Amino acid sequence: MTILPKRFILPNSRPIMKPRFNVRVYGILIHNGRLLVNEEIIKTRTIIKFPGGGLDYGEGTVDCVIREWKEELDMDIKVLAHFYTTDFFVASAFDESQVISIYYLVTGQVPEVITNHVPNERTYWVDLQDVSADTFTLVIDKRVGEMLREQFGVNE
Q1: 26 CB contacts (<8 Å, ≥6 apart)?
Q2: What's the chain look like in SS3?
Q3: pLDDT per residue over 52-99, tens digit each?
Q4: Which of 65, 63, 104 is nearest to 82 (CA)?
Q5: For 105-142, how does the pLDDT look when each residue is reduced to its tens digit (9 = 90+)?
Q6: Is pLDDT of 103 > 80?
Q7: Do 23 and 85 contact (CB within 8 A), yes or no?
Q8: Kind of pairing, strands 98-108 and 21-31?
Q9: What domains are there in the chain, each with its CATH number?
Q10: pTM to 2 decimals?
Q11: Considering just the CA atoms, what is the radius of gyration of the chain in Å?
């Protein structure tokens, strides 16, 4: 039996945990046969992921991905379509929350050089034909990498 933090006690004395969600929103930019990815260091570990980040309270998911791309990459993007939302349980590595990630296909004016404005992060292109689950570090991103491989017919 899993013992949960005693945040709330029901009348029958069974502890329950208040559910918490960590919503992340990412953009998938494919340009000239390449996919834009982000590399960052989290807890001394190098992570390869999609550009994007955490949803602020009161913010819509489309507004979030647009804001994140502007903050990190100084890029104005437009959301084309929803691509994927997490459909399996993933616990956060940082706290007692469940991670829900939302991915959008995005487009925008692609500058000659893309500069990541966040310290200890870099952003670069990967040939779409080389994209797979193995391109990424995090389990949800791995699922999306595999979906991209399947949907866009790469690695066949």
Answers
A1: 49, 50, 51, 52, 53, 65, 101, 102, 103, 104, 141, 144
A2: CCCCCCCEECCCCCEECCCCEEEEEEEEEEECCEEEEEEEEECCEEEEECCEEECCCCCCHHHHHHHHHHHHHCCCEEEEEEEEECCCCCECCCCCCEEEEEEEEEEECCCCCCCCCCCCEEEEEEEHHHCCHHHCCCHHHHHHHHHHHHHCCCCC
A3: 999 999 999 999 999 999 999 999 999 999 999 999 999 998 888 999
A4: 104
A5: 999 999 988 999 999 899 999 999 999 999 999 999 99
A6: yes
A7: no
A8: parallel
A9: 18-127 (3.90.79.10)
A10: 0.85
A11: 18
- CA 137, 139, 144: angle at the middle one, nearest 5? 90
Read off the amino acid at residue 140. Answer: I
Q: How many CB atoms lie within 10 A of CB 149?
A: 20
CA distance 155 to 127: 11
Position of tokens 């399996």?
88
Residues 8-57 pLDDT 10s: 444 555 555 667 999 999 999 999 999 999 999 988 899 999 999 999 99
